[in-house]
Amino acid sequence: MNPENSKNYHQETYTIPNDVMMEIAQIIVQADLPHEIIGVKENKRQVILSISSQVNLKFHKEAIQNIEDILNDYYAFCTDESETVNWRGH
Predict the structure, then answer these.
(1) What is the pLDDT of residue 36?
(2) What angle do CA 72, 2, 61 make, to 5 degrees?
(3) Is residue 53 helix, strand or coil?
(4) C-alpha–C-alpha distance, residues 46 and 78, integer Å
(5) Is the CA virtual torsion 12, 13, 17, 23 positive or negative?
(6) 59 CB-near residues (< 8 Å, 6+ apart)
(7) Which residue among 19, 39, 62, 83 is least enclosed by CB atoms within 10 Å?
(8) Beta bridge pairs of residue 40
(9) What is the pLDDT of residues 22-42, one digit of tens each?
(10) Torsion over CA: 50, 16, 44, 40 (sign)
């Protein structure tokens, strides 16, 4: 069965920074989410993943929400960090 072709599955594409890849990989494995690496951005140290989840499974919904929370927190942290750095010098 190809999960992407089943109407019970929803597929999303995520760009995962190397800094949080292990946490997200752990969620994917624990929730047994079908996934595929569809690209790599070496210069940005990112992996592009296609992740499928069954919309009617609570633990799949929670796993996807955890992944999205990690990514949102990561990007918010990076944005906050870059705004506090005075890159122009004194």
Answers:
(1) 97
(2) 30
(3) strand
(4) 14
(5) positive
(6) 31
(7) 83
(8) 47
(9) 999 999 999 999 999 999 999
(10) negative
Residue showing tokens 């005075």 = 86
Q: What is the pLDDT of residues 38-84, one digit of tens each?
A: 999 999 999 999 999 998 999 999 999 999 999 999 999 888 765 65
CA distances from 23 to 17, 40, 62, 64, 67 (A): 11, 18, 14, 12, 8
Q: Is 36 helix (H, G, I), strand (E, B) or coil?
A: strand
Exposed (0-12), middle (13-18) or buried (19+): which is 51, by Cβ within 10 Å?
buried
| Residue 50 CB partners (closer than 8 Å, separation 6+) | 4, 11, 12, 13, 35, 36, 38
The C-alpha torsion from 61 through 72 and 26 to 48, rounded to 10°, is: 100
